Batch of 4 targets.
Target 1
Amino acid sequence: MKPYCFVGIDTSNYTTSVAVSNYDGDIVANLKLPLPVKEGERGLRQSDALFAHTKNLPDLMEKLTEVLKDYTPIAVGCSDKPRDAEGSYMPCFLAGVAAAHSFAAPMDLPIYRFSHQDGHIKAAYYSSGADIGGDFAAFHVSGGTTELVYVKKNDTFFSVELMGETNDLNAGQCIDRTGVMMGLKFPCGAEMDKLALEFEAKLPPIKTAVKDMSCNLSGLENLTQKLYRETEDKRLVSAFAFEYIAKSLYKMTDALREKYPNIPIIYAGGVMSSVYIGERLRYKRNGVYFAKPAFSADNAAGVALLCREKYLKERS
């Protein structure tokens, strides 16, 4: 008989994802397709994202079929909302919910729903090599979210409590708006990270807007626009943007550690796949963990792992 596995599906605003965890909790497939964004645009409307997922899912489900030639699925997980909060909702997740139910129904498999943020945190925890016995803190930093949460372990792995966040733009939004302004292709994070790492001169002074564990990032867009008009230097502007975000997260980390001096910290979300930002936050820090890039950007791996944990817990 083929070994058992767990399937996870995530349909965020920019990536269609399907992942498979084996019975032992190892990710054996992490399949992803980006949603197409027209040149010069800075994102997608929800209606366009939902339509793009419906086009991507058949291709990914065919690839999933190939993976499942070696496994027997026994449960399916999907993300159905951005985060665990009242009123948290985005239509794009309906595509993943529909796909999960369509996949599970013929085999009468149980379906478990999780938030997109929970999936990010679990994927980061898995790929970072963290072995944390108790509660921890997590930064979820992406195009749609810039939050600091307290993660409390419980019987279904964890629950989260918001401790800090951006008061305006998200970090990923600032990066993508800056990149598109410079003529880069959306999403711009990977290319800007490479440009930032190539910059070797001195940066202009940076004054962030951080209070306690929250920040304001909207001013960064104006600063990078001005800097690019004056210099037309993509490396300089990329480094400035990433340094600004890194310093903001660093100060939020300082505020967190003032309240919880020894708390382990996991950095998750697409922005945290930046090598530049990771290097800044690792400096003289203990007890910090970073996801590998494939598990830091949007993915369904965390959802598959959460599905496994909930299934096993219900049967223990």
Target 2
Amino acid sequence: MKFLQTYKRLDNLCRDMNGIGITGYLEDMERLPDGERRVPGWKDDYLQLKHYRHLRNRIVHEVNADEEDLCCAADTAWIESFYGRILGTNDPLALYHKAITPPPVFSQPAVSFQNDLRAADSSDSNNEKPASMRPVSPPTAPRTGCALWLLFAFCVAMFFLSEFFR
């Protein structure tokens, strides 16, 4: 019964991920036609999962199918290993999403820390901070809002109305 218990554990994990189980995991793999090209071992994992789902269905639904006759310890070990790969985000779907997601881009600072230190040492005699160490005020956005424009328009209108009714 070790195979069936291990399979159910993996099925529950997949159900937590996709709401369906191993069948849903396989369907997700089928929806990604370039998965085999992007992830090494994609097809092998797909075929193994299909095989183990078939074994599980035979054990559960066929009258004379027995787990001891259909499975071995290596089958249980593979399922446990796949379970661990999902938890470690090292399974085919996780690897696929890592492959299609571009890595974050980190920009290099314009002036290195060492240059800042050298500039600070040389400017100590002048009591002036180097340009790279001076505080930079953030760019300010115009603070004129809609209310200010309405007030201006009201004042102009009142001026013309007062001139008109004189």
Target 3
Amino acid sequence: MAQTHTTYLSLGSNIPDRAANLSRAVAAITESVGTITRQSTIYETQSWGYTDGDYLNMAVAVETALAPQELLAATSRIEADLGRVRSGNGYEARTIDIDILFYDNETIDLPLLTIPHPKIALRRFVLQPTADIAPDFVHPTTGKTIRELLEECDDKGEVALYSHDTMP
């Protein structure tokens, strides 16, 4: 039996139908990445870095047999399959964005993959959903829990519960 790893993923969408995009991403993750063991509620947040429509954000914990680079390839494939187009201009509207936040307690620094995600401590819209599913997870480089990172986060962007939560 293959060894499994716990990974935490952040999902976001700001192109309609946002909730359906998240639902499709969750289904695709289950199909091609691994077993989702925990799933946050959905939050509505303002765009970060540009003004192109509000996001729906959530986080999932996944047990996967994929190696980190395989995980990145799988999540990139899911994004492409769900219609994400990367222009190379950085922050932009997207049908789905899947970020790898953590992979076990590993620290990985490769040209196309950095784990833990380098901006997690700066983004309330990532920390809040992650705190729903793993408040006591310790960030491997800061030594702080997700709850502590959320309490210390300087990001003042509003993170509100999504009132039309249709996710299973």
Target 4
Amino acid sequence: MAINFMDAITNATGKAKNATEVNNLKRKILYEQERIVEVFADIGRKYYKNPEEDPAVLKALCDDVDTRRRRIKQMRFELNSIRGYKVCPKCDSEVNEKFQFCGVCGARLPEDDEEEDLNSLDSGDYYTESDDFFSADSVKY
């Protein structure tokens, strides 16, 4: 019985540690998302006050957004790993790591040994790297 009791304590400790890590990652993701909104506001203010603003100033702010997006992508990957999920590369659905195909769109999920490129950014939204600073046509509602 003592061994089972010790296993239970170890299991409970591991779950508590995972819960703490999950909460920390969620908090960090939220901070990065809030900061991205602030940077976009800075870009808007700078452009509004001076439409002829040096493009390098605006580009630096856009680069900051892209850096924060990469951090968010890395943290989401870590969060899903802790929770036992993979993210579908096609539709971004969370899928149990035991499955090989997405239950939403049917796409093949990456294997454990296939590394996801955590430095790439998706081109389908307005946070992406590009020479264009902001395209109103690409905003999703």
